[in-house]
Amino acid sequence: MHLKTILSNLLFLCAVSLRLKPLFAECESSQFECDNGSCISQFDVCNGDKNCPDGSDETALTCVSQRQHCSKPYFQCTYGACVIGTAGCNGVSECADGSDETPLRCGNEDDIRQHDRLLQGNCQDNEFKCPSGICLDKGNFLCDGKDDCADGTGFDESVTTPLVVETPLELLGCPLPLGDERPILTGEGSRILTGPITRGTVRFSCKHGFVLEGEETSYCAKKKWSTNTVPKCEVDCRKPFHPPGTEVKFVCATGFKTLSSLPDMRCMKGGYWNRGRQRCEQDCGQIATPTKSFSANGYTINNTVVPWHVGLYVWHNERDYHFQCGGSLLTPDLVITAAHCVYDEGTRQSYSYDTFRVIAAKFYRNYGETTPDDKRRDVRLIEIAPGYKGRAENYYQDLALLTLDEPFELSHVIRPICVTFASFAEKESVTDEVQGKFAGWSIENKHELQFVPAVSKANSVCRQNLRDIQADKFCIFTQGKSLACQGDSGGGFTSELQTKIFSARKTVRHFLFGVISNAPNADQCAHSLTVMTNIQHFEVMIRDAMSRSIETRS
Fold it and tell me: 345 — phi, psi (to 5°)?
């Protein structure tokens, strides 16, 4: 009789049974698993540097998928990695295979003639042949980490070692499984063995989270094991509460989606799941249908219209929290806002994180005036852009990221905004002539949540009105009678874009373009022109923080 287990969402599955974690890959979903089992950030893959101990993050097999994403102004290595655009022939090997500094690409006529002289039809026993026919000495050039073939084919004896060197060696001995299925091999005296195994008795075991399928010992001779089947490791799901036959049904929690449907997982008799777990990705930039209408010209809105907008409050005079700035939710526990909202001009550093509190789904600005939707979180960490110096440098790099002590539970009124980053050449043009809006609270009456429609202008256009505007800024012109007022600082300027996130068809989602930087004096509003910090200039800072947020919650 089979036990049918239905879990309401992935988060519940993790909460109920932490012991399930070893069933899946040891690396987090935001990480890349090297061939030797170690984990690195996905942002460190195919960047020209061998970050994996075995270099498996910089191979043609890994990086071939990057080819379509590597465009100007970046330089593409022959095996697919994307590196800095000035890499070609700058005297520094930026590519793991050295393909940015090859003689054919960078050499003079003498270098090319020398290269031609190396072209041989037949190679000697102490030489190896490149794909183009070049013969090179094994002792001097094999596995030296450089593209010594220098023929533009991307053949790197180090990068392609699994295909060129290791596979023939494996064929010299008894067959062994690959990847996670490969057992730990020990010989006499518990000595760890590596392939090829040509002769002798071998004991098989598996790393934590895997179970051995087959005999524990076998004898190797003449490329054959003494047992009928080759022992291999399988994911271990043989637990009292998950016996073979158990089925698990996955449903993404609110605010999370997948591109395809989530198939059921079944624990098989051999102690392994019939398929891997499909991850639910964070949904972003979508709004729920408003539960009440909002006026055409007054712009007072329901909090479902800007579910990423949050309020930042500061503990004031040891008595109560006062409103400080707006902000936007990037992940359930990461907020982006303006640096001047959390910066002490006197000490020239950020205020203490424990003086701030963030409220999501806030309809009324005043801290004490609440609705059932209000959700409060304390701040655990403040990260200010490294070049920010406040008024001294006219609010250059006016951007900060706040990590919360506990993530918000996503709902129809609390959802993160989408972010995307353009190429280096497009960082300014992407903010020109964008029809969008920003959210804030009215300075009148009950300080209700509002949004302001606006159109953006690139930095070069803004300079016609603001000659001292910094290079990381663009500006927006509000439309109609609406204005940007004190307290709107830190809020996000967003716009709708068509994208294929979570769908084969294009859908409209809201993306963040900038963060309001200039702050009018009390009870004043910025007439028409508002200065924004362009998030395109902070790609590394934002991506790293979002990656850490995802890793922490995985």
Answer: -65, -25
Q: Which residues of 382-420 are buried (b: 16+ CB within 10 A; e: fewer)?
A: bbbbeebebeeebbbbbbbbbbbeebbebbbbbbbbbbb
Active-site pick, 340, 447, 510, 537: 340
Report whether 73 contacts 425 (CB < 8 A).
yes
DSSP-assigned beta bridge partners for residue 234: 211
Give Cβ neighbours of residue 376 (< 8 Å, ≥ 6 apart). Answer: 357, 358, 359
100 is catalytic: no
CA 17/CA 36 separation, integer angstroms: 28
Burial status of residue 522 (CB atoms within 10 A of its CB: 0-12, 13-18, 19 or more): exposed
For a pLDDT cut of 90, what percent of the chain falls above it?
20
DSSP 8-class letter at 134: B
Which pLDDT tens digit goes with each residue over 374-393? 999 999 999 999 999 998 89
| Residue 340 known to be catalytic | yes
Strands 356-360 and 375-384: antiparallel
**How far apart are alpha carbons 371 and 276 in whole angstroms?**
42
Q: What is the pLDDT of residues 68-118, one digit of tens each?
A: 456 666 778 887 888 877 777 887 888 888 888 887 777 777 666 665 555
40 DSSP β-pair partners: 32
Is the pLDDT at 433 greater than 80? The verdict is yes
**pLDDT of 199:** 82
Catalytic, 354? Answer: no
Mean pLDDT over the full length of the chain: 76
**Selection from 38-52, 200-214, 244-258, 400-414 with the highest mean pLDDT:** 400-414
Long-range CB contact pairs, 75-83, < 8 A, 24+: 75/100, 77/48, 77/154, 78/147, 78/152, 78/153, 78/154, 79/154, 79/156, 79/159, 80/46, 80/154, 81/46, 81/47, 81/48, 82/46, 82/47, 82/48, 83/47, 83/48
Q: List the domains of the chain with CATH numbers.
A: 4-17+241-282 (2.10.70), 49-167 (no CATH), 180-235 (2.10.70), 309-553 (2.40.10.120)
* Of 148, 156, 373, 398, catalytic: 398
Between the alpha carbon of residue 487 and those of residues 90, 325, 337, 483, the distances in Å are 48, 5, 12, 12
* Percent of the chain's residues with pLDDT above 70: 71
CA distance 1 to 58: 48
- Choose the catalytic residue: 56, 328, 350, 489: 489
CB 402 within 8 A of CB 358: yes
